[in-house]
Amino acid sequence: MYYNILNLSKEPFSTSPDPYFLYPSMSHQQALQRLEIAIRLKRGLSLILGDVGIGKTTLARVLVQNLNQDNTIVTHMIFDPTYDSEFQFVAYLAKLFGIRPNFRSALDYKEAIERFLFKRCVDEENIVVLIIDEAQKLSASSLEILRTLLNYETNEYKLLQLVVIGQTELLPKLKRIRNFSDRISLKYMINPFDINETKAMIQFRLKQAGYNSGKGLFSDTAMDMIYQYTQGYPRQIANICHLALEEFLMQERSVVDADLIDEIIERGRKVDLD
Fold first, then answer.
1. Measured in Å, how far apart are the chain's first and last C-alpha atoms?
2. Assigned architecture for domain 26-189
3. In what order do the strands lie in the sheet with 127-132?
4. What is the pTM assigned to this prediction?
5. What confidence tens digit (pLDDT) does each residue in 140-199 have?
6. Is the pLDDT of residue 135 over 60?
7. I need a labelling partner for 89 at 20 to 30 A (CA). Which of 113, 126, 139, 164 fits?
8. Could you confirm whether domain 2-13+194-269 is CATH 1.10.8?
9. Residue ranges covered by each domain of the chain
């Protein structure tokens, strides 16, 4: 019924990290463009920071999608970098890279990874990219492994292109690792949307989901309220818009207006207080 009444082909305000629904804000576009430049120039370490719900995971998936269009770029991604030990982390990295033998020490794994990177990047002239999401979860020992991997290089470039994506508390952790923060070739902070980008995101997602009526579903004042409430954080925008469409249908309204958004916000505040 939800899809049929609104003539939608997909859920427009899902909070799943679907690249198809990433609104290309100025901040997200610049992050993607700068990342691709750093990767293609083989600069080594790129750092992307942002608050919870800003769209970092979706951005990472878009980056993978873009890089996979080039058959000279080999991309690997870690979504949850929680490892109990240095050995566990390097063993997982070796498996991710397709290194088959089982070794007994972390040193053996690191040497095998260095040989793998040299073969793929120098002999075969590929670019190997490792993207780590939720990087604020990395332990000190895992960060030390990454620092070691960044030492693998030729006279001209780094063998591994490392993209580290995390919440803002990651930066102090990196600064505590000697000779790590000074290896960052790109550092970029993803910002929340402004009011115009918030409105554009709502319209963009509806269009991507198949909505093509000339009539706007959300009034300008409703979108103003959504911005004020969410402060431009994409996940929160998606959540409140999803609730608004549910109420829109159940109450048989003609438009999502400011009164409806106010009703949803007040209901959410009562739940928080309870």
1. 32
2. 3-Layer(aba) Sandwich (3.40)
3. 73-78, 127-132, 160-166, 45-49, 184-189
4. 0.92
5. 999 999 999 999 999 999 999 999 999 999 998 888 887 888 899 999 999 999 999 999
6. yes
7. 126
8. yes
9. 2-13+194-269, 26-189
